[in-house]
Specification:
The complex is a heterodimer of chains A (about 425) and B (about 290). The mean pLDDT of chain A is about 95. The relative contact order of chain A is 0.18. Helices cover about 75% and strands about 0% of the residues of chain A. In chain A, helix 11 packs antiparallel against helix 15. Chain A is globular, with a radius of gyration of 23 Å. Chain A has a single domain, classed as Formate dehydrogenase/DMSO reductase fold (Up-down Bundle). With about 425 residues, chain A is mainly α. In chain B, about 20% of the residues are buried. Chain B has three domains: about 100 residues, Immunoglobulin-like (Sandwich); about 100 residues, Sandwich (Immunoglobulin-like), CATH 2.60.40; about 30 residues, no CATH class. Chain B is α+β, with helices and mostly antiparallel strands and about 290 residues long. Classes of the chains: A mainly alpha (about 425), B alpha+beta (about 290). Chains A and B meet through helix 7 and helix 10 of A and helix 3 of B.
């Protein structure tokens, strides 16, 4: 009886909640940003890529920076769900759904932003018609599609027991949502056989997602590393990108944890202990990424090859220096300093550190793409002045911000539809703890 | 006079006066041209001439294009006319000695080639000439990889060896020629011969290893430019590696290397095989649920 009451309390706490006033404003703002982005994309389709500031030098601008950012952030699904699960980290289970939702939203927009970068969307079709298996671009297309599919499955399988619970609340969920729940999971009856098959599938997915996650970001790094350019000509790029991806992914999770905890009053389920532990993980990942950054920049700085000098000086003390040091300090050093102290691992400081990591990570991706393209090994002669500088046009900003808003909108909508913390898993864990 | 007639008369006067405007300005002095005539004979066959035209602008020589020149053998008279040529952007023009002048060519041991320019609005008339003695060059390649050039001059009715002529012994390449060893030139001895050892064993030749040796006398005051070639199998055999339409990393999609296809497709099929299995697994779970209901 006591168990039943406890279960009902967990269910009522964790059921998806309708948007309040703040939620509606939040969705409205995100939708407005998306619409502005859509209008900018319409202009890009109407007038061509000339509406962007991308020219022959910087042909990959903030679209590609944003793409790398989304791919990086999507890796969190494999970290929180798969790595934690396989390593037997029990405390991470309330965070798995958040991580998977972020991963799905990010990978959707990573795919979309690549199509935006192509200019005309029908060029994407050409990738399949003329794409070469020898090209890292095709590997990226294949691996992003695979990762998206795995992420969807990894979101779906653990949802099945929760759908059974959600179907019990026909009145409060509403007709359309109830029909949707019925469509995706009414067959789940919670039998031992079903649980066995589901557990087996989740285990397989957790094993499969790790190499695919490593591949997705390694291949993305190879898009750069296989191109002979200052700053990209590195054998370290795969590991450097993966370290950065885990950091920004973990940063995004702590930000989402804090917001959902506050918005849905989940203090009982996302506890201070979760922030304490995620804070420690963030420190470890920050230091790891800092180490890779030192590898990436210190050795070229020491050699200062003539062909790379302009690029490196531009980063360390030139035009890009404020942005570069901002990204290093905000994205790695300051969060590490905050999180090293016990007081710094309380929810609010961890949230602030997480925001800093995510913002720093976005600018870090911009710095990976743009300064390199502005300093080719073989500069063109007599190029127009506009080729030598790059500052995104309003259309690029609008599309980029629209994509970021779109990803957050997907996360918000998924959090509205599905329980943000796995209900069945929480009940089972409570039982195990009680025993 | 009607006003419109006045206007018409005025305009007509202006039109007639405008060409006279030049008459008020002082005419520019015409430039001087320098014409250099060079004589060439390759493989002791038909001789040719190359004329180079320059002018001095601000103390520097510059090539002059578009200059029309008449070339003559010995004298600038109608019967000795070789050709009419126009200089190119490099200020150069070439012409072969026509067969019509064969008898005049055979009559003397020395000839003067004359190039004349009649002058135009920019340049004064000019003339250039070169006198050469009839000579020829022979090449011989020994089994011990020695290259010998012999320079002979026509004296009376026979060819006699010439001593003290600088000869370049080289291998003909796509662009500039490559000397057969480190020595830039070889000088002929009393027998008219100049020899050098071939030291470029590893140089690539054609598919059979053939290379072309060349012996050259360059800008000689007496003989002009003489050259002769000979093919020898002294080069390394060169097998052209053409990767076009072969399986390479940079080939088209249907020419991807087998190894990359094997690796890529086996990974893809394995991973997607697992994913398809997991999708079927959902249907299995669904069936179990439906069985439970029934």
């Amino acid at each position: 009886m006591e168990n039943l009451i406890r279960n009902e309390k967990i269910i009522s706490d964790l059921l998806p909640q309708k948007f309040g006033k703040a939620g509606k404003i939040w969705v409205g703002v995100l939708t407005a940003i998306c619409l502005v982005g859509l209008y900018a994309y319409y202009r890009q389709l109407r007038y061509g890529l000339i509406v962007t500031s991308m020219r022959d030098y910087v042909s990959w601008g903030i679209y590609i920076s944003n793409f790398v950012f989304f791919v990086a952030i999507s890796l969190v699904g494999s970290l929180i769900t798969a790595v934690f699960r396989l390593a037997g980290v029990k405390w991470g289970s309330p965070l798995t759904r958040i991580a998977e939702i972020i991963a799905v939203a990010a990978i959707i927009f990573a795919s979309l932003i690549i199509i935006v970068d192509m200019g005309s969307p029908e060029r994407f079709y050409n990738l399949f018609i003329y794409g070469r298996i020898q090209s890292p671009i095709i590997w990226d297309v294949i691996v992003i599609t695979t990762y998206f599919f795995i992420s969807i499955l990894l979101l779906y399988y653990p949802l099945l027991p929760d759908i059974q619970i959600l179907l019990r609340f026909k009145e409060s969920t509403g007709k359309r949502l109830y029909r949707f729940y019925s469509f995706i999971g009414s067959f789940w009856k919670g039998t031992a056989e079903q649980f066995e098959l589901s557990e087996k599938a989740i285990n397989i997915l957790c094993i499969a997602i790790i190499p695919v996650a490593f591949t997705i970001h390694t291949v993305t790094s190879w898009l750069f590393a296989t191109t002979y350019r200052p700053g990209w000509d590195s054998t370290n790029f795969g590991a450097y990108f993966i370290a950065g991806a885990f950091l920004v992914g973990a940063g995004a999770v702590v930000v989402a944890m804090y917001i959902f905890r506050r918005a849905y009053h989940l203090e009982k389920y996302i506890t201070e202990n979760h922030f304490e532990k995620m804070g420690r993980i963030l420190v470890l990942l920050s230091l790891l990424y800092l180490y890779f950054n030192m590898n990436e920049f210190l050795t070229p700085f020491f050699k200062m090859k003539e062909s790379e000098a302009a690029y490196l000086n531009g980063l360390f003390s030139g035009n890009f220096a404020p942005l570069f040091w901002f990204a290093i300090l905000t994205g790695m050093i300051v969060p590490t300093l905050i999180l090293l102290f016990k007081k710094g691992r309380k929810p609010l400081p961890v949230f602030i550190a997480g925001v800093m990591v995510v913002v720093g990570a976005w600018f870090k991706r911009y710095l990976i793409v743009t300064p390199t393209l502005l300093h080719p090994f073989l500069p063109m002669h007599d190029v127009p002045a506009s080729y030598r500088h790059y500052f995104p046009s309003w259309e690029e900003w609008a599309i980029t911000l629209g994509s970021l808003a779109g990803a957050m909108l997907i996360i918000t909508v998924l959090a509205r539809i599905f329980p943000i913390i796995p209900i069945q898993e929480t009940i089972t864990e409570q039982h195990e703890t009680a025993e | 006079m009607k006003p419109q007639n006045k206007l018409f008369t005025g305009l007509l006067t202006l039109v007639f006066l405008l060409p006279a405007y030049n008459g008020f300005s002082q005419a520019h002095p015409k430039g001087d041209l320098g014409i250099a005539v060079n004589y060439f004979i390759s493989n002791n066959k038909i001789p040719s001439l190359m004329v180079k035209v320059k002018t001095k602008v601000d103390g520097r020589f510059q090539n002059v294009a578009g200059i029309s020149l008449k070339l003559f053998l010995d004298k600038d008279t109608v019967g000795k006319f070789i050709a009419k040529v126009v200089t190119n952007d490099a200020g150069e023009a070439t012409a072969y000695i026509p067969s019509s002048l064969k008898s005049q060519w055979g009559n003397a041991l020395k000839h003067t080639f004359v190039a004349t320019f009649d002058g135009n609005s920019k340049y004064e008339a000019a003339k250039g000439d070169v006198t050469v003695a009839k000579a020829k060059i022979l090449i011989d390649a020994g089994n011990d990889k020695t290259v010998t050039a012999t320079v002979l001059e026509m004296k009376d009715t026979s060819w006699v060896p010439v001593k003290g002529v600088d000869v370049v012994l080289a291998i003909k390449r796509m662009d500039a020629d490559l000397t057969i060893n480190d020595k830039p030139t070889f000088t002929t001895d009393s027998t008219g011969k100049a020899s050098g050892d071939f030291k470029r064993d590893t140089i690539p030749g054609d598919a059979k290893g053939n290379i072309t040796l060349v012996a050259k006398v360059l800008d000689n005051d007496q003989y002009g430019n003489l050259s002769i070639e000979k093919a020898v199998p002294w080069g390394a055999k060169f097998t052209m590696l053409n990767t076009f339409d072969k399986r390479t990393l940079f080939a088209t999609r249907n020419k991807a290397p087998i190894w990359i296809q094997l690796i890529a497709y086996s990974i893809m099929f394995t991973v997607w095989g697992i994913l398809i299995y997991l999708v079927f697994n959902v249907f299995k779970i669904k069936k179990l649920g439906e069985d439970k209901i029934s």
